[in-house]
Each structure stands twice: as C-alpha cells, then as structure tokens.
Amino acid sequence: MTVESRSGASDPSGVQDPRRLAWAYLSKVVQGPCPALSRLVEEVGPEEAARAVRERDLSEMLGERTIARAHVDTAAHDLELVAGMGGRLVTPDDDEWPQWRFLGFGNLSRSRDEGPPLALWVLGSRPVAELTDRAISIVGTRAASGYGEHVTAEISGDLTVDGWTIVSGAAFGVDGAAHRAALGVGGLTVAVLACGVDRAYPAGHARMLRQIAQNGAVISEYAPGTTPAKHRFLARNRLVASLSDGLVVVEAGWRSGARNTASWARKLGRPVMAVPGPVTSASSMGCNRMIREGEARLVANAGDVVEEAGPIGLREGLDVVRDLDALSGAALLVYEALPAVGPRGVRELSELSGVAVEQVRAVLPLLEMEGFVGSDDTGWSRQR
Q1: Cα 173 to Cα 133: distance, rounded to the nearest angstrom
Q2: Do 37 and 30 touch, CB atoms closer than 8 A?
Q3: Partners of residue 218 on adjacent β-strands
Q4: For the segment 157-204, what is each residue's pLDDT rounded down to a tens digit?
Q5: Which distant-in-sequence residues (6+ apart) come within 8 Å of 177 by Cβ?
Q6: For residue 84, pLDDT beyond 90
Q7: How confident is the model at residue 325 (pLDDT cuts 50, 70, 90)?
Q8: Quick one: CA dihedral 168, 171, 174, 177, positive or negative?
C-alpha cells in the first residue's frame, strides 16, 4: 500500500520522507501516550519536535519523559520493517487518521496516560478511519467459560454480518472469540496490541492475527520491537475503547482489564454494555456488578447492542434519550451555542461558543453521530 500523507509524501515505506521519519522516531522514543509531546507536535510539527527531543531542548517534564530513549533512532529500520510486513505508520498527517474517534481525549485531564496516540503502526490495507467508522468493541476475561465464548461469538458474528467492525485486544478468551467470530462470517475486525505489530502476542494467536491483517487491521501505538508490559496493556485499553461506538463486556472479574476498558469507555463518552452471567460464576462478577451499579446497560444479543450504541436510524424507533451530561469541553460548548430552533453555520458557532473553527468542524460530526445535531444545506441544528 502506498502511504499518502498531507505532507505530500508518496513512498511505500516512508523512509524518504523526513516528516514521517520524525513521527516514527518520536513514536519509538515516547512509547505510548504522552499528551505533552502531542501538544508540542501540534505547535511546532513533528520534525521540530524530533529535533527538540534529540537536543534535549524541552521543558523539564517532557525532558524526563523522553530522555531515556532520545538517543534511540531506529525510524528508518522500523518503517522498512513494517512496510515489508504489508503495513505502515499512520499519523495525524494522514487522511485515514481516525481523528474524530480521539476527540474525547481532549476532555480529560491530560495526565501522563490520558492522551490520544501519537501515531499508529498498522498491518492491513484498509484505511483505519474507514474500518472504525461503524465499530463495536468487545472485551472480557481471558479465562472465558463455554457460556462466555458462545455469547461472544453470537454477538460478534451477528454484528459483523450487519456491517459492524469488531474491535478487541487479541487476548485469549473473550477477545479471541470475538475476533474469530468476525473472521468466521467474513466480517471486519481490528486487533489492538500492547506491543509492536511485529510481535504476535499472544504467540498462540499468531495465525489469527495474520488473518485479521488480511481483511481488517492489527494496530499498535508502539513501535516495532516493543515488548508487552502491564502498563502497556492498561494504555492499550483506552484505544480499544476509543476506536468504536460502544463497548460490550462479556464475562469479567470485578478487578480486571475488561473493567479498566469499561472505565475508559465511560471517560470517553462511549456507551458501556455488559452481558449478565450466573450469580455463581466468578467470571461474571464484574459484569453483574456493573449492571447492578448502573455502570453498564444489560445486553443479551446484537440487537440490544445496536439499540444502545447504533445510529438513531438503526434503533427501530426506540426512544433513547442521550444524557447531555455525557458532553463536556468543546462538544458541550458547540452544542449549547446552537439555538433551540433553526440552523447555525460553522463560523457563527465558533464565534458563539468561543471554540476555534477547526475544532468546531471536528466536533460537529461527532455530535451528529451521537444524535445531538443534524445538518442540511442551511447549516447545523439541534436534534434534541
């Protein structure tokens, strides 16, 4: 696949493009979310940010975050390696960058681990934005029971037949069942890894990951050669939550990675759903408790999932009222700038809300997908 970026580069590996080399270098240095570096790149561009990292011309906080690997520059090798595997580095420069999926991070505190990915290493030829345009994340315990795997396969298979992409973390148990069910019906699925895409993890899923890359995508924010680690799995969970319209948890202990992913989904404004299980099953304790305490909506099949997370037109007349408390930051300011009746244009909304025009343009499609606003030739208007 040819890499097409806004910088004008057209190069299968990206090694001739200084800007893409800078992105790859920064990805290797920072290894994971770093809101401070992301802000620096937004302000000065990746090449200047890379120079600042190499020369340690940084703030004290950002210097501490990057100093350990500032001398490690394997960018050209990493780009060539991934290109040889049929993959690429996707950055905010690229048209396929799923920008609107990451808007929710702008409403968080921007601590060390609460930011969007700097870039994404991707195996698979389909554009990431296209793959995740209509997607559901399914996660759960690695020690899935027969019941858990059966329900996962039913929900995942039915959703993919309906045209939804399944996003999960490629782990054993529920994750693997979700991916396999999607593949089994010829559907699309995305695996998000907590290591470099050059590593099959877990090794027992190497074949499955190759199949996923053939028709969907294997994605990681970590550069090639990065090994799995507990903190990377926790960081990975936020991407699993962000790359879809909603999250389904099937079997999870009370303290589990799946519940961590559910927490991220709530932070990012995604609907959280859970499949109930036997009260005698430790594997279902987390799901049952999330439902009881109002942290998740009960779902039993793909239809329930679509009712909770699907676009308004697919909900078969179900009267679902979205809680405006889910809106915050720029999204809330733009929504409140809309009149009760009648449309407004982007520039007028920018002036009324105090939000920059570019951010207004980015927020409006997200509000439209969530059913808050609609648009026509005259502008944008409230739908509720």
Answers
A1: 26
A2: yes
A3: 123, 191
A4: 999 999 999 999 999 999 999 999 999 999 999 999 999 999 999 999
A5: 144, 148, 149, 152, 153, 156
A6: yes
A7: low
A8: positive
pTM above 0.90, yes or no: no
Report CA-CA distances (Å) from 165 to 7, 75, 157, 186: 29, 31, 10, 11
| Average pLDDT over all residues of the chain | 88
Length of the chain: 384
Q: Nearest to residue 332, comparing CAs of 367, 301, 300, 282?
A: 367
- Sign of CA pseudo-dihedral 341, 364, 270, 37: negative
